[in-house]
Amino acid sequence: MNSFGTKSDIQDNNYLHMKTLFLILLAGIVLTSSVVQAQLKSGENVRIDEPVNHDLYVAGGTVTVDAPVRGDLIVAGGTIIVNDTVTQDILVAGGNITLNGFVADDIRCGGGKIVLAGNVAGDFVVTGGEIEILKKASVSGNVLSTGGEVIVDGVIAGDLRNASGTFTLNGTTERELESKGGKITINGNVLGNAVLAGESIEVGSEAKFNKDVRYWDRSGAVDFKNSLQGREPIFDSALEIQNGKWHYLGFASFMMVLWYLGTALVMILLVHFLFSAVLSSAANTVKEASLKSLGVGFLFMVGVPIAIVITFITIIGIPLGILSLIAYVTILLLATVIVSLLAANWINNVYYQGSWANGRVVLAAFGIFIFLKLASLTPVVGPLIMLLLACMSFGGILLNVRWKKNKALALT
Questions:
Q1: Mean pLDDT to the nearest integer, 361-386
Q2: What is the full DSSP assignment across 61-76?
Q3: Which residues lie closer than 8 Å to 340 by C-beta, 6 or more apart?
Q4: What is the mean pLDDT of residues 26-50?
Q5: Residue 57 burial (10 A CB sphere; 0-12, 13-18, 19+)
Q6: Cα–Cα distance, 381 to 235 (Å, whole number)
Q7: Residue 374: how many CB atoms within 10 A of its CB?
Q8: Which of 42, 69, 123, 322 is deepest in the core (most CB within 10 A)?
Q9: Whole-angstrom distance, CA of residue 68 vs CA of residue 84
Q10: pLDDT (tens digit, 9 = 90+) per residue, 165-218?
Q11: How far apart, in whole angstroms, are the C-alpha atoms of residue 374 and residue 377?
Q12: How far apart are CA 133 and CA 281, in angstroms?
């Protein structure tokens, strides 16, 4: 007898290895998914007018929150208005965002135009084209901001760190101020140390700096008037901004991560509602025939590019090749979203007999998406695992497509 076992034994062992790998990647999500409660809302116009006693996930064209949310609020949409209290974090991505209510924890926000009119007990992390913190608003924690135009009229109890095209402080920051960018205008009160670096710095007659100021201005000279109360500002050449490079300063990379996650949530919602039945069936196929799914998915990943190259050989095939290339690239870009949704359906089918509502599936998929993105950062092993999971997922989906034979060909 072969010491390595029969062919059937080897196949069974391979199946177990693949299944174990899949289980390891999902273990962290499985441990938490049984205790997570959340509500999912989506639509062109979504209004929350009744209290929500757990986390709330919303995606829509226009989203209005007029009732308390006693948990996290995660929103993606075109126009977003939050008028009531949120007892935990807010993660929001949209076009026009207005935050009027009290937030008991942190806000992480990305959008086109963002207005903060309420009070925030934690940090306010924000990126956008236009950002305004109104006079009646306050932030008990720190503010990290980057964007085209940032105006602060309210009170910031923590540090204020900014990187933007134009920055205007009319309000008060009770600790340190650090602003880097294009044009900086200070009309308000800075209680802590200040670091200013801009193409131009203007200090108004009402401005007050209560501690040391280090600055860099391209002209080299800034009139601080009486804002320093007898102290001298320090010109620091180490703060110099290279031409055209100011937008790389500050927290732009971190903000892009937040924006990326908001976009990912929207794509997860969209793909789930369009293909939920197919993904659920594919999850069962991956569970029951993981090796076959892996093989079919690998053939898809390798075979499609070869087919596309062949279509470019003839002039007639070029339009088809271009369309196929666009479709193939789109599928690859959505690979992590597809894998995450299929994995969430796999957990639902195996451990919960398909009892999860749509919101629970999307929530689990979003958590898996973040986990996979972090795992893929591991050199060599991370991308390899992601490739295997993508092949298994694509294969499971393809095995659930009902391929119909062409009747004309069948008769020949």
A1: 79
A2: EEEEE-S-BSS-EEEE
A3: 268, 365, 366, 368, 369, 372
A4: 60
A5: buried
A6: 48
A7: 10
A8: 69
A9: 5
A10: 899 999 999 999 999 988 999 999 999 999 999 889 999 999 999 999 999 998
A11: 5
A12: 48
Check the CA dihedral 264-267-273-277 and report its sign: negative
Segments in 335-380 forming alpha helices (H):
335-351, 358-375
Report how far residue 268's alpha carbon sits from residue 275's, in angstroms, rounded to the nearest whole number: 10
Q: Give me the half-sphere count of Cα atoms (radius 13 Å) on the Cβ side of residue 372.
A: 31
Say if residues 39 and 358 touch (Cβ distance below 8 Å). no
Residues in the chain: 412
Burial of 148 (C-beta count, 10 Å sphere; 0-12/13-18/19+): middle
User: What's the whole-model pTM score?
Assistant: 0.59
**Alpha-carbon span 133 to 342, nearest angstrom:** 41
Alpha-carbon distance 333 to 316, whole Å?
27
Looking up tokens 């996979």 gives 372
* Tokens of residue 267, six digits: 């794509």
55-65/90-99 β-pairing:
unpaired
